[in-house]
Amino acid sequence: MLFLFALLIVVAVFSTKLSSRAGIPVLIVFIGLGILVGSDVLDIIYFDDANLTKQIADFLLIFILFTGGFQTKKAVLKSVAAPALGLATVGVLLTALGLGVLIHFVTGLPLTNSLMISSIISSTDAAAVMMVTRDTPVRERVASTLNVESAANDPMAILLTLGFVQIVSGKSASVPSFIFSLLWQFAGGVLVGFILAKVARYLFDHLESENRGYYYVLIIGVILLAYGFADMIKANGTLAVFFMGYWLGNSEFVCKRGVSNFLEGISTFGNVALFLLLGLLAFPHKFVAIWQEGLLIAALMIFVVRPVVVWICTLPFKYSAREKLFISWGGIKGAVPIVLATYPAAYGIAGSDRIFNIIFFTVLLSCVLQGSTMGLLAKWLKITVPLRPHSPYSVELHTVRKSDLDMFEIQVEKGSAAEGLRIRDLPLPRDALISSIVRDERIIPPRGTTSILADDILFVLAPTRNIDKISYIINQPRPQLDEKARLENEIESRR
To answer: Do both 354 and 472 map to the same domain?
Structure first.
């Protein structure tokens, strides 16, 4: 089993090349591979343990959600905090309630069961959304809104799902107790995240180890510590790790760049393993009995509930109709709803197998329909921006002592003041150094006589406090020609 699953991971990683060329969401590819080798198709790996899937998925989601918070920049969150967090909290709640009521009236299921199903599929998938906004860049405000919403809305969906699963299974407390528990899980989770972020930063700054690997072990330890402590005091562990990641990711500490790269690897592995596992757990032949309900729920969710919720939550903010339409279409479902779909079975709820298949089918429809067309919709709505060049190289500063110096990556914009200047002519601060330049996907060593070109990616070693100033110096608009120069150019052009 271990050999086959390891081989499956290797195949899944290389399949991402095919998915990026074909514009297919990686979620579909990974789940598809799991289904292919699973019991219904090739029957190479038989797997049907929902409880084990839930336990593994809960563990993997700890690191996936922490990394989502860690990569959420304060400036980005600040610019879209109100609409994005509104969608991630109030939006998820409205989605769960609105879709639940519609499912109840259309299918005839009990209201509590309908609300449980709608809660399970109320969140959007960060991995799928961020892949689309990265491959088809859209306006920064729109992309940031979708990215922050998708990274932050899982905790609310998990809380609602747990609440309704407990109600349906008959294991819930009274309504006042449930509301108090919900409020405490939110407040306690955020509080634990804030405190543990401070603790983690102190530990990193005082470890002072020559072995970089110990910093990677330490980040795993503090992430699990935050989740475990929150769970121990009955707060929400997923909220705790997300906000701990956010506060830690927006502070400076020893070995931050290395830790960031390590977290990206862990999160990517978690997503790949999770999607493959969920694919193995699926039995497509069972979709024959539920495709009508799945198709109906997907249609209500995509074409009715999501647009209405987005319009309501963005009403106080200045989004154009085209931007709202794109945000509405960006509500791609993914791994978390499928993971939450295993909760009814774990709580012994009757018909849990049917519920899982309905949700799985609905998520697949969302991924295929929305995930594969978001790029085309962005171009049709004319809200795309030019694709920024991506450096195939990474240059980082590793230190075992606290330092205000770090290595930063700055792209030279077209028409900026630095374009065409030699490095020696750039008015950089004395404590700033351009260590290397990436040009046309090649890394070159800079000299004082090296000219800066548009789309160059500069790796700059400088104090953290100066990076905004350096970015402005490099990318400030080119100065306008003075009147004399303008007249000389005009006369020359007439000749």
So the answer is: no
Going from the C-alpha of 268 to that of each of 159, 371, 402, 462, the distances in angstroms are 24, 18, 29, 30
Structural domain including 121 reads 2-381
Is there a contact between 95 and 309 (Cβ–Cβ < 8 Å)? Answer: yes
Sign of CA dihedral 457, 463, 466, 468: positive
**pLDDT tens readout for residues 443-483:** 888 888 898 888 889 999 888 788 888 888 888 887 643 44
- Across the beta sheet with 457-463, what order do the strands follow? 405-411, 457-463, 433-439, 442-444
Q: How many CA atoms lie within 13 A of 223 on its CB side?
A: 27
CA angle 325–328–333, rounded 5-degree value: 150
Q: What is the dihedral of CA 221, 223, 228, 231, to 10 degrees?
A: 180
Please report the beta strands in 284-364, taking only residues with DSSP state E, as ranges in sequence order: none
Please check whether residues 350 and 403 belong to one and the same domain.
Answer: no
List residues bridging with 437 in a β-sheet: 444, 458
Q: How many domains does the chain have?
A: 2
The domain boundary, picked from 346, 381, 416, lies at: 381
pLDDT single digits (tens) 266-320: 988 888 888 888 788 778 888 888 989 999 999 999 999 999 999 999 999 989 9
Segment 317-354, tens digit of pLDDT = 989 999 999 999 999 887 788 888 888 888 888 888 88
Spatial distance between the Cα atoms of 350 and 371, rounded to a whole number of angstroms: 32
Distance separating alpha carbons of residues 30 and 101, to the nearest angstrom: 33
Which tens digit of pLDDT belongs to each residue from 376-405?
A: 898 899 888 776 666 777 777 766 677 778
**What is the CATH classification number for the domain harbouring 465?**
3.30.70.1450
> Which pairs count as long-range contacts for 14-19, CB under 8 Å and 24+ apart, including other chains?
none
* pTM greater than 0.85: no
